[in-house]
Structure formats: C-alpha cells, structure tokens
Write a structure and sequence with these properties.
single chain; about 160 residues; 5-stranded mixed β-sheet; alpha+beta
C-alpha cells in the first residue's frame, strides 16, 4: 500500500501554478463555456502537498456527461477510486499528475472552491491543514484520506 509523502510549497507550487495556467488555456479552448479554476493544495498559499495539480471544471448540468466524454477523448481517464455521481466526475491524465474535477455548477461540489477560499483567507487553517499532513507523512493513503476528509468537512461546516 502506498505511503504519503508531502512537499513544501516552494518545492511544488510554482510548477503547479505554471501547469495550471497552461492546462487552463487548453481546457478553455476545448470547453469555452466551462469555468476552469485552480483548486486543491497547490492553490492554497503555503500548503504542503503531494505535488499534484487539481483543476475544477464547472459545467452546466446538461453538459456534464458530454464534458467527461470529451476529456476522455483527449487522454483523461475516470479515477476509479473516487466518488462519482451525476454532478461530479474526477479524471486524471496518464502523462502527468493533473486531476480534473468535472462538476455541475451550483452543485454541492462547489465545496472545492469554498474550501480553497476558506484556507486562503485564514493562515491558521493552512497551519492546521499542514499539521494534519505532517502527522500523516509516511502513513497509509487510506488513513490519510479519512483524516483529510474530516478536516475538510469541519472547515466547510464553519463557512
């Protein structure tokens, strides 16, 4: 079972931000009506991370399934070990660590943005998030994911 390894912000954030801008340009061309936003730890100032890039792709409800199919056609695959429903589909790209969250605009999955904004407003929350990650350095991925989910739920309940 893989173990968690985290990077300091200066080790990964500049590269992720650059990759986000490049990928966002491509996605905006393919999906002109989609809302493309940088989410995840790499979008949070000072957050430690695995070094991956998460991108929110917000679409109208009627375009969700079509958007997923279009992205699969350009090399993205559905992440099998994640939650999926009619308003959320997580995709990953085989060539890099980019992950897309294809989300129906206005759905409960706007929480990706709400969480990012909450942490970027409150450095104390970033410190707590980093402490959680540091406690799970070298830990089992599933144990880390449970702890992270609890933290995120707690933040979202307060906003």
């Amino acid at each position: 079972m893989p173990k968690m390894t985290f990077l300091a912000p200066e080790e990964y954030q500049p590269k992720c931000r650059s990759r986000f801008l490049s990928t966002a340009r491509k996605l905006s061309t393919m999906l002109p009506h989609a809302r493309i936003e940088h989410v995840g730890a790499s979008s949070i100032d000072g957050a430690i991370s695995k070094g991956d890039l998460d991108i929110f792709v917000g679409v109208k409800a009627g375009n969700h399934q079509q958007t997923v199919k279009l992205l699969e056609g350009v090399g993205y695959t559905v992440k099998l070990d994640t939650h999926r429903d009619e308003s959320l589909c997580m995709l990953e790209h085989a060539d890099n660590a980019d992950a897309l969250q294809v989300v129906v605009n206005g759905s409960q999955y706007e929480c990706f943005i709400t969480f990012r904004e909450a942490l970027n407003r409150d450095p104390n929350l970033v410190s707590q998030y980093n402490a959680l990650k540091n406690r799970h350095q070298g830990a089992n991925v599933q144990i880390y994911r449970l702890a992270k989910s609890e933290f995120i739920r707690g933040v979202l309940l307060k906003v």
